[in-house]
Amino acid sequence: MEAPNRSSVIIVGAGISGILAAKELAKNGVDDIVILEASDSIGGRIKKQEFGSVSVELGAGWIAGVGGKQSNPVWELAIRHGLRTCFSDYSNARYNIYDPSGKIFPSGVAGDTYKKAVESAIQKLSSDEDQFSIRPETPIELAIDFILHDFEMAEVEPISTYVDFGEREFLVADERGYEYLLYKLAEEFLVTSNGKIMDNRLKLNSVVREVHHSRDGVIVKTEEGCAYEASYAILSVSIGVLQSHMISFDPELPRWKTEAIDKCDVMVYTKIFLKFPNKFWPCGPGKEFFIYAHERRGYYTFWQHMENAYPGSNILVVTLTNGESKRVESQSDQETMREAMEVLKNMFGPDVPQATDILVPRWYNNRFQRGSYSNYPISANSQLVEHIKAPVGRIFFTGEHTSEKFNGYVHGGYLAGIDTGEALLEEMKNEKDRQIDNESIIQPLQALTLSPKM
Predict the structure, then answer these.
(1) Cβ distance 317 to 341 under 8 Å?
(2) What ranges make up the beta strands (E) of 67-115?
(3) Are 108 and 129 found together in one domain?
(4) What is the pLDDT tens value at each position of the chain, 454 positions in all?
(5) Which domain holds residue 217?
(6) In this structure, are 288 and 418 located in the same domain?
(7) Which residues neighbour 250 within 8 Å (Cβ) at sequence distance 6 or greater?
(8) Contact present, 150 and 156 (Cβ < 8 Å)
(9) Are 168 and 274 contained in the same domain?
């Protein structure tokens, strides 16, 4: 193993929280940092890929919370750097629900079913007993339950993102990708050339496996055989990685910390992209999203066409979550395409063209992520979030999962990174003040010890 390299702060993870924490430190004169990123690029769960001649977002794809009195910092960043986006309106999805025979449910039926589902969800949230709430049973009830709880929970309870920043959402539709914003942030404190980060303080393909910590500092070891030593560490890895025990701690994290980490849920959100030779689905106002009502909840339920983002791309996206995501991740892409095509033929008839390509992200099986985003239980209290984000000695924790108000969102990770950077700066200042105080006490004592006896 190589000899440890000393720095002031080691940051584990170069997602948006890690980049913002590093930027905050550098802005305040702490540029003696090392950023260790397990993958071959920055961005974390903000990641694009070329598919069907366009750039698609495998992870975070929307800027949620726009149009309110308070400005979303990620939206401000997107505007500043000219990121191309297009408005998405989920509200019409409930009126584009197909039954297994390909018929669209009448708007009155869909509206009434949706209204009853919202009332039932509100009743369930407001009471410890759910015996009076309506349990979804029919395909349309299951479909609406899915879109309500997996996509539109804001209609059931106030969500800080929409209360604080506004209710509008914009899909990122830029060939440079959502990750372009992270590169622009990184440019402010890392050395770049021709759009690439060339700074040796950023170590890509560095998979952290051990964190040793004491009163004097931390030593971080990677599976590649490197060791890095610093006064402090910031862990910006996902809550899924923390739960997976991929990183070991010596000494172990205290029980209050591990129990809090384990109580946080991890959502798996899989956007499956399908490329076709031609368009066969409805387009136009109010048609961006459509729903398939199946007897199994979440089975290829939520669909979106990419014509608004990339006209003429002939790409459909179907979003799966949690159990269905894990199931699909474990099977071949060919089997997933077969299932998706069967659903599309049910909706649009047997003559729909065969998809020419498929892209299936695997966030749950990605050992550097182990899921898509955090989801605190409804019963969670502020103490749980405080325990998850609280430092342990010289180890600080950041990420969207440490944001009490905005966990699960990109802007949550953005603001959490800044908060963690500021908290560490305050701790570094306090440590320096303590050292000065100790020296002011020790020096007079040394003078007394060395003075001649009377």
Answers:
(1) no
(2) 85-88, 97-98
(3) yes
(4) 444 568 999 999 999 999 999 999 999 999 999 999 999 999 999 999 999 999 999 999 999 999 999 999 999 999 999 999 999 998 889 999 999 999 999 999 999 999 999 888 888 777 655 554 578 999 999 999 998 888 866 566 789 999 999 999 999 999 999 999 999 999 999 999 988 999 999 999 999 999 999 999 999 999 999 999 999 999 999 999 999 999 999 999 999 999 999 999 999 999 999 999 999 999 999 999 999 999 999 999 999 999 999 999 999 999 999 999 999 999 999 999 999 999 999 999 999 999 999 999 999 999 999 999 999 887 778 899 999 999 999 999 999 999 999 999 999 999 999 999 999 999 999 999 888 877 777 666 565 565 554 4
(5) 5-46+178-263+376-435
(6) no
(7) 210, 211, 212, 213
(8) no
(9) yes
Question: pTM for the full model?
Answer: 0.93
In a domain, 38, yes or no: yes
Residues annotated within the binding site for FAD are 17, 37-38, 208
Q: From the CA atom positions of the chain, what is the Rg in Å?
A: 25
Q: To which residue do tokens 């010596």 refer?
A: 250
| Within-domain flag for 51 | no
Specify the number of domains making up the chain. Answer: 2
- Read off the CATH number of the domain in which 354 is found: 3.90.660.10
**Residues 159 and 295 reside in one and the same domain:** yes
User: Can you say which residues are annotated as belonging to the binding site?
Assistant: 17, 37-38, 208
d(CA 23, CA 208): 21
Q: Are 369 and 45 spatial neighbours (Cβ–Cβ below 8 Å)?
A: yes
In-domain check, residue 171? yes
Among 300, 333, 359, residue at a domain's last position: 359
Rounded CA separation 57/62 (Å): 9
* Whether residues 248 and 394 fall in one domain: yes
